[in-house]
Design goal:
This protein is of the alpha/beta class. It folds into two domains: 118 residues, 3-Layer(aba) Sandwich (Rossmann fold); 159 residues, Rossmann fold (3-Layer(aba) Sandwich). Helices cover 31% and strands 15% of the residues. The chain is built from twelve helices and twelve strands. Helix 10 links the parallel strand 9 and strand 10. The longest helix has 19 residues.
Amino acid sequence: MKLKALVTAELIRDTFSPLEKHIDFEYAGYAIDREVMSRKELLEKVADIDILICEYDTINKEVFNNAPNLKLIVCCRGGVKSVVDLDYAKEKGVIVCNNAGRNATAVADIVLGFILDLTRNISKTNSLIHNRVITMNATTKPDEYADTVWGLNNDSPFVRFRGDSVSHMTLGLVGFGHTGRLVAERAVAFGMKILAYDPYLPETSRPENVEFVDFPELLSQSDIISLHCIVSDETRGLFNKDTFAKMKKGSYFINTARGELVDENALIDALNSHHLKGAALDVTFVEPIYADSPLLDAENLILTPHIAGSAYDVQVQGSNQVFQSLTDYLNGKTPLNCVT
C-alpha cells in the first residue's frame, strides 16, 4: 500500500516523480497558491496522512493529535522549532527533518553584496543620481566629452564617496554553519581575513583559513561583522548597546539571520553617532517594517525586505533535499537532515 503525503511547501513537483510508485502526493495550501491554509483545512487534511512536507504551517499538538498515522515530517526550513513542536514530535515517535542549508548560497551571495555596497557606497550613490542630487544642470552641459566631468574638488562624488577596499579588512562571523562557511569562502577570495565565533562548532569542522576567537575579540578586531546564528535565549538581543560599543569604531554591521538578534534602537544610536560607519539589515524585528520606523531615518543603513534567501535555485536545492529525506526513509535509513 502506498504512503500518503501532504505537501504544503512550494517545491518542484517533478523532483518527486520517481517516488510516486511508493507515495501518493497531495499538494495543498502554500504549494498551490502561496497562501497558508486555514487551521480547519489543515486539521482535516492531516487526518489520514503518513508524511507531511510543510514550511509555514504551525505543527503543534493539535495537528499531531489529528494525524494518528503521521510518521515523518519534512519541514522546508533551516530552523524548524518556530513551526514544529519538536518535543511533542519525539513523544509521538514522529521523525522530523529540516532543509538545512537550502538557501545558504543565496544568503552568502547577498552578504558579499552588502559588504561591497557598504564599503563602496554603491546603492547610496545610485540613489543620489536617480534622485538628481549629483547630476548636472541642463544649462551647463559641456560641448565636448570630458574625462573628469564629475569633478575632482572636495564636493565631487570622487572625493565625497571614497570607500574602503575590502582586501585589507577583517570580517567577523557570528555563527559558522552552512551560511557562515560559504560567506567565509567568498570573503577569502576577496583577500579578507576571517574571524569566527561559534562555541558549538567542533574543532574538526574548523577550516585552517578561518581564525576562531572568543566573542569580545571578534567584536574588537573585526572591520565588518555579519550574523549567521539562530535565535535562542542565549542570542536574543545579542547585539545591543554594550555590544555595539565594543565594536571597532568605523566598522560595519550586517544581519541576514533574524531580527530578534539585534536591539534596533541601539543600532540606530551606533549609526547616528558614527560609531558604526554603516549597516545592512535584510531582517528586522517587525516584518514588514513599519512605515514610521526610525530605522528608515538612520544614517548609512541599507534595508532589504527579507530577500537574502530568495533565489530561484533555492527551490531546486530544497526539493532535492526533501527527495533525499523521503528516499532515505523509504529505504529504512535515518533520513537526511533528521533533527529528532
